[in-house]
Automatic annotation (TrEMBL):
It comes from the Bacteria. Belongs to the glucose-6-phosphate 1-epimerase family. Gene3D superfamilies: 2.70.98.10. It catalyses: alpha-D-glucose 6-phosphate = beta-D-glucose 6-phosphate. This is Putative glucose-6-phosphate 1-epimerase. The keyword Nucleus does not apply. GO terms for molecular function: carbohydrate binding; glucose-6-phosphate 1-epimerase activity. The active site is at H165, E265. InterPro entries: Aldose_1/G6P_1-epimerase, G6P_1-epimerase, Gal_mutarotase_sf_dom, GH-type_carb-bd. Keywords: Isomerase.
Length: 290
């Protein structure tokens, strides 16, 4: 049974929250399983982490999850949409911030014919204290239907960097073309800033780039489908594929999985979110098939 099916059929400590949403447990983690006429999906309360999303028109999930991901307390999940906050990458410890490894609270769960709307929230508390000592509030709105929409809002008295580190499921990395990335990027593999003139990418080696001037509309195409990613209020778009050697080195990623995923991540890295306690700062994305 594949990982998606295993999650969908999980019944451990299962309780129904609405007609299409049940709360259950997978591994050590409480999760929400969504089976709506428009899509199926799952969200982990640890990290407010969307694990996967598959519109009912699709044969395979558009948001992808590694079959080797851990579902353990305090360990980041491999795949889905990790929430990197309040820092991106190695700017602090743990890498990509603490929001993805602590448990959030489900604030609301609503549904209608279009899909399911969830709001998950996190404020400074005993879990977050070892990582960060300033007060904050962060909330994540997720719409799961024919489209998938994610918006992160936060407040506090500090600057935060962040990424919505989305793993897209693709047919074959050799056939993928990502368009709309703009003409400048920082290469995280060579450290220098390299200007480029074309705003599109194909893949034949490890990549780890922060595009600093991407269009708000980006497309990810393979031979099977075209996914449109529309970002709102993002300053950067990160593209990442670990390729062969890094895939082998990652314990929570199968050796061949680099062929079936690509990360294209809306972020606030070069223009951090300048937070205040009185006002929410928000950025996010929408994904649809075109
Ligand atoms: O392994 P993780 O901490 O989840 O990070 C996975 C990747 O995330 C981003 O895309 C970064 O740009 C990469 O440098 C990093 O390797």
């Amino acid at each position: 049974m594949n990982i998606y099916k295993q999650i969908l059929v999980s019944t451990t400590e299962s309780k129904l929250l609405s007609s299409s949403v049940k709360q259950t447990k997978f591994g050590e983690l409480p999760i929400l399983v969504i089976q709506h006429k428009s899509c199926c999906a799952a969200v982990s309360l640890q990290g407010a982490h969307l694990l996967f999303w598959q519109p009912s028109t699709e044969q395979t999930p558009v948001i992808w999850l590694s079959k080797q991901s851990k579902f353990e307390k305090g360990i980041a999940i491999r795949g889905g949409v990790p929430i990197c906050w309040p820092w991106f990458g190695p700017l602090g410890t743990p890498s990509h911030g603490f929001a993805r490894i602590v448990e959030w609270t489900l604030d609301s769960c609503n549904e209608d014919d279009d899909g399911v709307d969830l709001v998950l929230v996190l404020s400074n508390n005993q879990q977050t204290k070892p990582y960060f000592d300033k007060p904050f509030n962060v909330s994540l709105k997720i719409h799961l239907g024919k489209t998938c929409e994610v918006a992160l809002s936060c407040s506090g008295e500090f600057e935060a960097t962040s990424a919505l580190h989305t793993y897209f499921g693709i047919d074959n990395i050799n056939h993928v073309v990502v368009k709309g990335l703009g003409d400048t990027y920082q290469d995280r593999l060579t450290v220098e800033n390299k200007p480029v003139t074309i705003g599109q990418m194909t893949f034949n080696q490890e990549v780890d780039r922060i595009y600093t001037n991407a269009n708000t509309e980006i497309t990810i195409s393979d031979n099977v489908r075209t996914i449109k990613l529309t970002t709102t209020n993002a300053s950067d778009v990160v593209t990442w594929n670990p390729w062969i050697d890094k895939a082998k080195a990652m314990a929570d990623f199968c050796d061949d999985e680099y062929q079936s995923m690509v990360c294209v991540e809306a972020g606030r890295i070069n223009k951090p979110l300048k937070l205040s306690l009185n006002e929410q700062s928000t950025y996010g994305f929408k994904i649809e098939l075109i």
